[in-house]
Amino acid sequence: MAKRKNKVKRNPKGGIKKGDKIHGQKKGKKGEAAAYVTRAQALARLQIPLADFRKLCILKGIYPRDPKKKAHGNDKTYYHQKDIAFLRHEPLLNKFFEMKTFMKKFKRLMGRREIKTARRFEERKPKYTLHHLVRERYPSFDDAVRDLDDAVSMLALFQSLSADQAKDIPVEAITEATQLYQEFQLYVIRAQALRKVFASIKGYYFQADILGHSVTWLAPHQFAQELPAEVDFRVMLTFLEFYRAMVKFVNFRLYGDLGLTYPPRRDAELERTSADVAALETEMREAGKAQQLHSQDSTDIATSALKDFGDESEAAEMQQSLAKSGRVKTTFRGLRVFINREVPLRPLYFVLLCGGVAEVGWERGAQAGKSAGPGSAFPVEGEAITHQVVDRPAGSCEVRPGREYVQPQWIFDCFNIGCLLPIAPYAPGRTPPPHLSPFVDDKAEGYVPRQREILDRFAAEVSGQKDGEKDRDEAVSSAAAGSSMQHFGEELQAESEGLWHSEFRKQREEAAAANMAAATQEDSADVDVGMRPAHRPSEEEEERLRAKALMPKKHKRLLQRIEAAEAKREAASKRLKRKAEAASS
Q1: Do 225 and 152 belong to one domain?
Q2: Quick one: pLDDT at residue 529?
Q3: For a designed S-S bond to 446, which of 59, 511, 518, 573 qualifies (C-beta 3.0 to 4.6 A apart)?
Q4: Closest CA to 585 of 502, 515, 500, 521
Q5: Beta carbons of 365 and 315 less than 8 angstroms apart
Q6: Alpha carbons 391 and 408: distance in angstroms, whole number
Q7: Do residue 195 and residue 302 come from a single domain?
Q8: Mean pLDDT computed over 534-563
Q9: E-strand spans in 160-232?
């Protein structure tokens, strides 16, 4: 019986098609699809489990890719071929193999109940460092400073957590994260690098200017944290492991630039008795004493550098920036502030020292019969105290003559604006003004809140700037800010005279309605019924219209969406301005 021959499909163009093979080329073996492999293929090539692969990718900074052509389906995770080849030559890969062999032998000894032998064997546990990865991922120091945002935020997060064996969070990781974060805060204080602070529901946002780069991080509120079950802390601990090594390198370099020894000296007594205050108290006090000299030197250097700028606009912009940063550095200079027990100590203590305060007193951690916590510069009875920060209802705390009582928001608002604000709106028991974020550019958003106008006007008056503006928009904004301050003062005066706030607002709304009706009648009488000449576009508008006409359809639609979004934002801004003018008139 003759053997049955396999049928071969003939391609109409003359080629041979057999299965997935066309003209001798298999699918996924050439082109863009061949440059990527799935995660399963990567694990098979590296011969490591998934947990080690994730850890290695995080430490090396390798992320999954999204290729256009997915040869193995859309439900797979893809990595680049070169990234996997990069991992095959990583020295940590051999350490993972050694660790796996060690754990097998260690478990065998523990299963045989050879405890002493297991302990001696544990002393020879393989260890590895991440120094080469830090140098590899950050060839220059500027690269490391630009990537400090996530690193400092991660340290601030873990320093607020507690060790948990169930979540595999070791005590050593929490201790080192706390130490590194405190050391970074100390550098910011010594360099007077803090520029912005904002208190939100998530925590406290800080922004510091470090070697010309803006570093922004988030510090959580100091509450008892509940660790959620859906969070994979093994992945977060891997990130923390790398960030600890990275921040240690950065702190060492930053301290060296300031001429300080690293690591700084720590007060063992404070470290043991006070958990809420940084144990770097010796360096902190020296920082407060050295701030004034450092600020004067930096101001002189910046002033001399301005002479090198040929462009007057650039020089004026730099001068304005330097003036604002100089005000921030000396906002609280000469004050002696005491922080009550109910007020969050860490963020206020940090902001006050960055703002020029040499010494701070606090009540938190005070023992029975004492009015000052461990490490406090002075007790609450100190006669030289100028301001006391409280967060209690009015009348619930003892009022001492010769000092001002303010809410915590006053510290943040004063620091952001660069000058001391009036005390009355922030008095205990009163609802403070809106806490505006310094990270938002209100002019770019199209709407400037009333409180922002008040703060800008007050800062301009304090800094000695003139009220004259260069263009019409700034003049209108200045007039609005002046009227806002006037109405704000009228509200305070009416409240002091015993008039209810609702009655005062009702009287003002009635007066505004009468003024609006009178203005409408005047406008209708002055309407010109004649024909007006059509608007003639300028050269810039004509150029923009010609460029829009030559655009491809895809770009034109994108431009239309952008213009529609800008028009919507502008309309919302005008609507808010009309409401504010009607309410303030």
Answers
A1: yes
A2: 41
A3: 573
A4: 515
A5: no
A6: 7
A7: no
A8: 80
A9: 194-199, 203-210, 213-220
User: Is residue 220 very low, low, confident or very high in pLDDT (cuts 50, 70, 90)?
Assistant: very high
Regarding whether 454 and 362 lie in a shared domain, the answer is no
Residues 186 and 253 in one domain: yes
At 578, the pLDDT band (50, 70, 90 cuts) reads confident
Residue of 142, 23, 35 lying closest to 84 (CA atoms): 35
Is the CB of residue 189 less than 8 Å from the CB of residue 287?
Answer: yes
- Give the residue from 401, 178, 206, 351 showing the smallest Cα distance to 280: 178
Full DSSP string of 85-138: HHHHT-HHHHHHHHHHHHHHHHHHHHHTT-HHHHHHHHTT------HHHHHHH-
Q: Which tens digits make up the pLDDT trace of 78-103?
A: 999 999 999 999 999 999 999 999 99
**Residue 253, both tokens:** 């370099």
Count structural domains, the chain.
5
Helices (H), 384-538: 408-417, 442-445, 450-462, 472-496, 501-525
Q: What are phi and psi of 507, to 5 degrees?
A: -60, -40
Question: What is the rounded CA–CA span in Å between residue 350 and residue 190?
Answer: 11
Environment class of 144 (CB within 10 Å of its CB; exposed 0-12, middle 13-18, buried 19+): buried
Give the model's confidence band at 466: pLDDT under 50 very low, under 70 low, under 90 confident, else very high: very low
Q: Measuring CA to CA, how many Å separate 376 from each of 178, 342, 420, 584?
A: 20, 15, 24, 46
CA–CA separation, 457 vs 481, rounded Å?
A: 6
Beta strands in 221-365 (DSSP E): 337-339, 360-362
Answer whether residue 338 shows pLDDT above 90: yes
Quick check: 468 and 447 in contact, CB under 8 A?
no
Domain boundary among 432, 464, 496: 432
Residue 534 covered by a domain: no
